[in-house]
Amino acid sequence: MKKIGFIGLGIMGKAMALNLIKAGFSVTVWNRDLDKCAALVAKGAQQANSPRELTETCDITFTIVSDPAAALAICEGPDGVIAGIGNGRSYIDMSTVDDVTSQKIAKAITEAGGRFLEAPVSGTKKPAEDGTLIILAAGDETLYQDALPAFNVMGKMSPYIGEVGQGAKMKLVVNMMMGGMLSIFSEGMSLGLKAGLDGPQILDILGAGAISNPMFKGKGEMLLAENYTTSFPLKHMQKDLRLAISLGEQLNLALPNAAISNEIFKQAIQAGFSDEDIAAIFKVYK
User: Fold this and answer.
1) Which of 3, 54, 61, 275 counts the most CB atoms within 10 A of its CB?
2) What is the reported pLDDT for 87?
3) 195: left (phi over 0), alpha (psi -120 to 50) or beta
4) In whole angstroms, how far apart are CA 42 and each of 18, 21, 36, 37, 46?
5) 171, 219, 235, 239: the active-site residue
6) pLDDT digits (tens, 9 = 90+) for 218-264
7) Does residue 32 have a pLDDT over 90?
8) Which of 270, 266, 219, 275 is nearest to 242 (CA)?
9) 134: exposed, middle or buried (C-beta count within 10 Å: 0-12, 13-18, 19+)?
10) Of the CATH numbers 3.20.20.20, 3.40.50.300, 3.40.50.720, 3.20.20.80, which one belongs to the domain with range 3-164?
11) 3 state DSSP class of 166
């Protein structure tokens, strides 16, 4: 069995790495805050002291970090991924970044002799814990085939999207739609509650109709309970909206609804809700 490396043990990464350990993979972990490695080491993982050390000793290294800057920082420098990747080893970046960042990382990895795949995920904390993420893979197809056993543990669906950049674009399309849906949902819930309608009944009626979806049910219950325990940090959704709008600008495509949603999420960040769940956007309308 191939040795697996895992970098980034936040809300998503910790759950994903734990599922790989439970499935019997040999897993080595690293996180910028090394204290976050302890819980996984207790479950059987090994701990590396740097991204370089991890990639030097693992056949396939997975990474999931917060944004393009973090994804690049993990790779660069004398203790970075690129310094350790070498011939015959592989790197899979599961972070949500723009296509330009992904292509830059891919170029550096392949020039160092490694194989590269981008594989951003659609899903939040619960799907990560349950192993039901949607993994959007693009890049080296031989690496995609080699990674499928791990993908099948972490996700319920892992389509191959094509060349590097296509997975990143697909993820931005998905999250742009999610951010827009959550914005209008929060606005509608605010209107209904201010008009004296019963919150649970609104959710029941939405759930029985054509616009029924798991996000409205789950986030609706959160906002009615005023419980914004973080599953998907609000600041990361705003980052994804910003990147989607930037992609639209590159393609000379107007995205007015995404732009409006982005402004609402920016207001939520300015109001201090940055680290709360994306459902906290409701508080801007409320």
Assistant:
1) 61
2) 83
3) alpha
4) 11, 11, 11, 9, 9
5) 171
6) 999 999 999 999 999 999 999 999 999 999 999 999 999 999 999 99
7) yes
8) 266
9) middle
10) 3.40.50.720
11) helix
Among candidate residues 171, 96, 133, the one with its CA nearest the CA of residue 19: 133
> Percent of the chain having pLDDT more than 90?
98
Question: Which superfamily is assigned to 169-285 in CATH?
Answer: N-(1-d-carboxylethyl)-l-norvaline Dehydrogenase; domain 2 (1.10.1040.10)
Q: Is the pTM of this model over 0.70?
A: yes
Q: Give residues with Cβ within 8 angstroms of 197, minimum separation 6.
A: none
Task: Give the mean model confidence (pLDDT) for residues 147-160.
Answer: 98
Phi, psi of 76 (to 5 degrees): -90, 165
In the residue annotation, 171 being an active-site residue is answered as yes
Start-end ranges of CATH 3.40.50.720 in the chain?
A: 3-164
